[in-house]
Amino acid sequence: MASLSALGNTLAFPLSNLNPSHNLFSSSSSSVTKLFFTRSIPISRISKRTPTLVRASSSSSFGSRLEDTIKKTVSDNPVVVYSKTWCSYSSEVKSLFKKLRVDPLVFELDEMGPQGPQLQKVLERITGQSTVPNVFIGGKHIGGCSDTLKLYRNGELEPLLSEANTKKTEG
Questions:
Q1: I need a surface site. Which of 130, 134, 153, 158 has the fewest CB within 10 A?
Q2: Over the stretch 106-146, which tens digit does the pLDDT of each residue have?
Q3: What is the 3 state secondary structure string of 5-37?
């Protein structure tokens, strides 16, 4: 397992390294191990997806760790979009960002296996929004498609984007 890497309390490695005959995780404890497939990629790299396998040791702490991961992701990236590939509203938001030459970090929830619905539930708990797209700019929850388009039409979106990108280059 040459490309195994540690990510906090999780382990990740490219799925190309997955071989069913390997014992991926050995544990003498009685904790339940869950495996989740994840993808998180900027929209410009959609054709170069690199899925990874993530290990979480217990489902009760998984929700809080997932919430922490979401909060860290949206604070560490200027623009984050939680999306579904088949959703026309998600496509509209991604097209708008492309038009504005913004490269958001996009999570396609419908391509994440069992972790997609779990992420969506945690996002609802954090934001109160159960639908996609779920848009964050500069660490702040913006809302969905209508909210993003309204900000754009009112001339408020581009200043938010500029401020978010400025924060990232200063920090």
A1: 153
A2: 999 999 999 999 999 999 999 999 999 999 999 999 999 99
A3: EEECCEEEEEHHHCCCCCCCCCCCCCCCCEEEE
